[in-house]
């Protein structure tokens, strides 16, 4: 398939891997975080870690919106959905994310709550127009990628004067979470994640542009390479990071030049700025309270804010103590370090948020069986399909 197969060429992937192995200095350990769940998924799916030399390690980050939504916010959504006259609309992935005491939206739905799965905020708007006798609440989650559609839905509802539509807003921002990873206090055992550089998110960066990471790279002296989601994109980004570290540079580089620009999507940014304002702080699963890391509707749209309309005051809820999602989302542990992984917790029976979404680290590890290769002591294996097409953006640079 044109424009996809080009980025899945096995021979080119092995060629880039050889460059990484050649450039990675012996005796030096490189530890890079892929912030985004889309990259985690690609790394697991194509077995990219098996292509890397032993001194180049990838650490999974918190960039999966389903994974980072804390249990207390899902408790709120369930309470709302159980109210007579309220219909809660949300994306399918959220239905199975555990809240307090093992509750989920799916169980609430089975118990009689009116919860509907939608593909877009505009679906919720259409339901509100078609059913004026019900209060339609859109449970909005996601990073900068999914925020513009929510902004458009809010603007449209405002313009149409829809009084039975509101948004329970849980949109979060990428750069503050990267900052939180770098500044997180050490754990009780003294553990703190070391990150030598980030693979920056792909889709998020189409909206924000690479400019969004400049301050972070400068302040913490950490290189950031924005990369696409295909296996060669990720391998190329790792090579770019290795070279930056070797040269003691901390630049924001753009591997995903076919879609990402320096300034991003100005129209989307304008729509977001019109509707949202920054929250002073917001709880993330795994990261705890992160200042200036999330959005809420601004005063002009307060009547469409479900928190305002229904008086929601979130109470922090404890996660399942046996679940290691919090440490995995901070990069301190890997999925297979969790005792529940693959025993009581699997995509069919998720005990934590990281096993729900395809972008979650636990779900990706489980689905592509990477842990089995290692547990069985199998040697490195490249699962990148050996496609015939040989065109690769940036191939000349590697
Ligand atoms: S395997 Fe399940 S219980 Fe363990 S960290 Fe992952 S999601 Fe949580």
* Beta-strand content estimate: 15-25%
What is the subunit arrangement here?
single chain
Please give the largest β-sheet: 5 strands, parallel
Distance linking N and C termini: 23 Å
Helix/sheet category: alpha/beta
Q: SSE string, helix = H, strand = E? A: HEHEHHEHEHEHEHEHHEHEHEEEEHHHH
Give the radius of gyration. 21 Å
Shape: globular
Low-confidence segments: 376-398
Count of β-strands: 13
Mean pLDDT: 91
Number of helices: 16
The distinct bound ligands, ions and cofactors come out as: iron/sulfur cluster
Residue share in helix: 25-40%
The strands making up the biggest β-sheet line up spatially as 2-1-7-8-9
Task: Give the topology.
Blueprint: H1 10-23, E1 30-36, H2 37-45, E2 56-63, H3 65-68, H4 71-82, E3 86-90, H5 105-110, E4 114-117, H6 121-130, E5 135-142, H7 147-160, E6 165-171, H8 174-183, E7 197-200, H9 203-208, H10 214-220, E8 224-226, H11 231-246, E9 252-254, H12 266-275, E10 276-278, E11 281-284, E12 288-291, E13 295-297, H13 306-310, H14 325-329, H15 361-368, H16 370-375
Parallel strand pairs: 1-2, 1-7, 3-4, 3-5, 5-6, 7-8, 8-9
Antiparallel strand pairs: 10-13, 11-12
This protein binds iron/sulfur cluster.
Please give a structural write-up.
- This protein has 398 residues and is an alpha/beta fold.
- The protein has helices spanning 10-23, 37-45, 65-68, 71-82, 105-110, 121-130, 147-160, 174-183, 203-208, 214-220, 231-246, 266-275, 306-310, 325-329, 361-368, 370-375; strands spanning 30-36, 56-63, 86-90, 114-117, 135-142, 165-171, 197-200, 224-226, 252-254, 276-278, 281-284, 288-291, 295-297.
- The strands form four sheets. The chain has a five-stranded parallel sheet. Strands 4-3-5-6 form a four-stranded parallel sheet, with helices on both faces.
- The longest helix has 16 residues, at 231-246.
- The protein is globular.
- The structure holds iron/sulfur cluster (SF4).
């Amino acid at each position: 398939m044109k424009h996809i197969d080009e980025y899945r060429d096995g021979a080119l992937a092995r060629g880039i891997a050889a460059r990484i192995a050649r450039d990675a200095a012996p005796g030096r350990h490189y530890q890079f975080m892929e912030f985004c769940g889309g990259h985690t998924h690609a790394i697991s799916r194509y077995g990219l870690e098996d292509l890397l030399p032993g001194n180049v390690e990838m650490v999974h980050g918190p960039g999966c919106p389903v994974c980072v939504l804390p249990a207390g916010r899902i408790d709120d959504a369930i309470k709302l959905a159980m109210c007579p006259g309220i219909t809660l609309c949300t994306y399918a992935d959220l239905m199975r994310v555990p809240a307090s005491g093992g509750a989920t939206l799916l169980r609430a739905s089975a118990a009689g709550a009116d919860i509907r799965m939608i593909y877009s905020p505009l679906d919720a708007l259409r339901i509100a127009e078609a059913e004026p006798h019900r209060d339609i609440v859109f449970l909005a989650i996601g990073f900068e990628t999914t925020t513009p559609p929510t902004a458009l839905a809010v603007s449209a509802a405002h313009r149409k004067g829809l009084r039975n539509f509101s948004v329970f807003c849980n949109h979060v921002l990428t750069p503050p979470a990267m900052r939180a990873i770098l500044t997180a206090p050490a754990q009780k055992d003294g553990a703190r994640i070391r990150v030598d550089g980030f693979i920056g998110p792909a889709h998020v960066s189409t909206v924000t542009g690479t400019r969004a990471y400049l301050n972070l790279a400068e302040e913490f002296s950490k290189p950031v390479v924005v990369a696409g989601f295909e296996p060669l994109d990720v391998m190329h980004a790792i090579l770019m990071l290795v070279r930056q570290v070797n040269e003691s540079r901390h630049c924001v580089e753009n591997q995903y030049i076919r879609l990402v620009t320096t300034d991003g999507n100005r129209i989307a940014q304008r729509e977001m700025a019109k509707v949202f304002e920054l929250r002073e702080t917001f709880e993330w699963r795994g990261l705890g309270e992160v200042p200036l890391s999330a959005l809420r509707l601004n005063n002009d749209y307060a009547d469409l804010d479900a928190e305002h309309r229904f008086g929601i005051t979130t109470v922090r809820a404890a996660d399942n103590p046996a679940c290691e999602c919090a440490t995995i989302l901070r990069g301190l542990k890997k999925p297979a370090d969790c005792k529940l992984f693959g025993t009581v917790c699997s995509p069919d029976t998720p005990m934590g948020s990281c096993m729900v979404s395809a972008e979650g680290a636990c779900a990706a590890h489980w689905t592509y069986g990477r842990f089995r290769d290692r547990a069985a002591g199998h040697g490195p294996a490249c699962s990148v399909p050996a496609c015939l097409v040989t065109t690769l953006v940036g191939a000349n640079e590697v």
